[in-house]
Amino acid sequence: MIRVVLPTHLRRLALVSGEVEINVEGTVTLASVLDALESRHPALCGTIRDHVSKKRRPFVRFFACQRDLSLEPPDTALPEAVRTGAEPLLVVGAIAGG
Amino acid sequence: MSGVRVLVGTRKGAFILTSDGKRRSWDVSGPHFAGWEIYHLKGSSVDPDRLYCSQSSGWFGQIIQRSSDGGKTWEQPGTTAGEPTTGPEGFPKGESNKFVYDTASKRGAPLTTHMWYDGTQHPWEFKRVWHLEPSLTDPDVCYAGVEDAALFRTSDAGKTWNELAGLRGSDTGPKWQPGAGGMCLHTILLDPSNPQRIFVAISAAGAFRTDDAGKTWKPINRGLHSQYIPDPTAEIGHCVHHIAMHPSRPGVLFMQKHWDVMRSDDAGDSWREVSGNLPSDFGFVIDVHAHEPETLYVVPIKSDSEHYPPDGKLRVYRSRTGGSEWEALTSGLPQQNCYVNVLRDAMAVDRLDECGVYFGTTGGQVYASRDGGDNWTAIVRDLPAVCSVEVQTLP
Asked: Closest partner residue to B61 among A8, A39, A57, by Cβ?
């Protein structure tokens, strides 16, 4: 089970509270986690990455295990602790503003 | 008794104000979509309980919301949970918040760039929906004006949106350039007497008209004079802020341009200035009285660099002569130390016997007049900055 922490606005959009837990088949990567997340919560399509290009939106960042994964290729395997559910994948709105 | 519903979009959510036909006391619900920018929400004239709402964020992009009960509850009219988000070929399905420019050559030029602020060409990039205009005949049909400027249409109540690419693909497209607020298509007027005719306005490209339901478009900017562009009378490049029409007389249009208030009596083929005695002819909003097609309303703003009323006095100006002769309406409006703005989609009228006029400010007030503008009251105040105001007159 993969744990994903969403920012408040996206939790409201997806009508969830707290962490989202999703099953991912095959290699656990940023792309496969987001695929599974959007499949379960279609309201999130287009809010984290572009509908067509799948490129991360500029003001969205990914963190896990105290690492910034935002610039990692989407097919990069996520850390073991995320794959086992020990640590969550954090989807974070970039700090922009005062 | 009939009633009124006022739909208010703000920088941090949507609010819905309701009153009976007396319009003396108002219930306020909201914020809906708290924390999100609500550029616009509007109801269908065919089914008043059908509302469309543009919800957006610089972080998380564009969302379309739809209500079928007058704003009590909302839903995203997209893919339902559990359905795959991609089709058999691996392409994304049509979620409601997906606005993708049509670059197919058979439907319009595969246009990929427009003019940037510095004169270079810049890729077309979708940013947000500025304006939603429900069809006059079908509640499942709605038009969306977007930034970067283009016109989209849904025929399945907002689930999928398709571009009317003939507008962006016209040969003037590469000359369009953004105004200070971005390159947005902000005004959509549907001709009630001719379903083939639509007017749109784009900052800072100008006004356009189609007479074949959106397949082909032509610029309608003859008579506009904009001293801030290299050719002041160019076919393209005018910063049109808003256009208004009275439904009984769709060939007569009134325009608040960046500077100048303009009038056309031939469906936009030509324009003449009707700024007359206004203290400033800069402004954003313009609207027409519900029952008097020659009665107009504007809110003069000091200048394009000072987006507040002249002399710190918030004044609506009314013309009962179709322009040129204007009177200040001040009763109930702040007449000192007022430095708010009134944005282009933030004025509307109701259709009760004594026409109500409404507008919202960047200071978070929504003012209403129950007597055609003679007297004003703040029906709500201290909201986030108001982006848009629409009014529904309910049976």
From this structure: A57
